[in-house]
């Protein structure tokens, strides 16, 4: 029976959490401000090993409940939420994100208008903490989550803003663990099974820019290790990977038009900082790719979701 027809929520929101109680409270406040009435949705916070459970923060919001998932990784945390969700549509939001007031209403309206669609990815806008973003923030403003690109080119949506009909999980299966990029792997698996991800441009979520180069390096440690683990380990594939790593190191100049034309940046200083970030991160990404190819022990960096 349909959950809405049975008096249950129409959409369940699953939010994995790890050591971000203050940001989680802001995220929950944005869900409390939804135009969708609170009896039409539920929120499941899945803590994945925090040093302190965010019980006090979650208690402020009666529509939310807190559960635990001991297996490390956002994939297992989301899977726990899926298992407990009561609605036929399950939305995913990161604990540091801020949902637009019409986020949930727009997702439901889009699914209703597109009954053949099983997977939606909403837009994600990146914002800096203050009016003068640092180098890391300027970089992330341009190159942070670009949902339109991931959907069109790579056939998946980042789980910072994703919504899925339950029958898709029934057909495709759940998210993978730490060894892979779980949102990419799942989205491409769903696409191959006949459930492509569609963009819902009106379903907006705001995501804070990473505010340090160390945070960006940690992010790319995971990305590179995941991408390497998902590739076939053939001589040809490894040679392509190495060539790509070398090309990335020399690619920053090609990014100048994108930086100059970005509407996420304001003024010359921010654009110069974004370019400095590109030079630094492309060099780091290139080195990490070569480490993956020639030093397999570096792959352990991908498993540091809640162990660092």
From TrEMBL:
Residues 12-171 form the Glycosyltransferase 2-like domain. Keywords: Glycosyltransferase, Transferase. InterPro entries: Glyco_trans_2-like, Nucleotide-diphossugar_trans. GO terms for molecular function: glycosyltransferase activity. The keyword Glycosyltransferase applies. The keyword Transferase applies. Signal peptide: none annotated. Pfam families: Glycos_transf_2. PANTHER family: GALACTOFURANOSYLTRANSFERASE GLFT2 (PTHR43179:SF12), RHAMNOSYLTRANSFERASE WBBL (PTHR43179). Belongs to the glycosyltransferase 2 family. This is GT2 family glycosyltransferase. It comes from Amaricoccus macauensis.
